[in-house]
Amino acid sequence: MEGIIIESKKILEIAVKAADSKKAEDIVALNVQDISFLADYFLICHGSNERQVKAIVNEIIEKEEEANISIKRVEGKESAKWVLIDLGEVVVHVFHEAERSFYNLEKLWSDAPLEPVAAWVD
After folding, report:
1. CB 41, CB 6: distance < 8 Å
2. Continuous H helices in 22-76
3. What distances in angstroms separate CA 47 from CA 54, 72, 100, 101, 108, one per listed residue?
4. Using one digit for the tens of pLDDT, what is the confidence trace for 5-59?
5. Could you count the other beta carbons within 10 Å of the beta carbon of residue 87?
6. Which helix (H) or strand (E) holds 118?
7. How far apart are CA 116 and CA 91, in angstroms?
8. 4 touches 104 (CB < 8 A)
9. Per-position DSSP letters for 83-94, written without gaps between them
10. Domain locations in the chain?
11. Domain 2-118, what architecture?
12. In the chain, count of helices (H) and strands (E)?
């Protein structure tokens, strides 16, 4: 079990660094290991426009693929309002700013503790 946690944390770190490199805003990681069977972590961030959202998504996908992490599925990339990237143990949600406040996943998953990511961002 410990190996899986380390692996999922590395996947999370790659995604956080990639999002940050494209100036994603308000990067939050939720540790959902104990409350969801869907993933170990949810990463939530947003961009200020569709172009930035797509840039963030593309960078995350590129960096995860470089690390030989399998991209299970990408949903919503065309509209760039809410893009979901399924990395298996980590599910990334990249929002357009207005969509993020509307769906408010942080409140929906408020039982999940925050995973510290400040060390991974500039």
Report:
1. no
2. 50-66
3. 9, 22, 9, 12, 20
4. 458 999 999 999 999 999 999 999 999 998 988 899 999 999 999 999 999 999 9
5. 24
6. none
7. 16
8. no
9. EEEE-SSEEEEE
10. 2-118
11. 2-Layer Sandwich (3.30)
12. 4, 6
Q: For residues 113 and 36, give the distance between their C-alpha atoms in angstroms, rounded to a whole number.
A: 12
By the 8 A CB rule, do 92 and 60 touch?
yes
User: Would you give the DSSP letter of residue 111?
Assistant: T
pLDDT, one tens digit per residue, over 87-113 is: 999 999 999 998 998 988 888 898 899
Joined tokens for residue 90: 């980590």
Residue with tokens 């357009």: 96
Own/partner pairs for 80-86, CB < 8 Å, 24+ apart?
A: 80/50, 80/51, 80/53, 80/54, 81/50, 81/53, 83/53, 83/54, 83/57, 85/15, 85/57, 85/60, 85/61
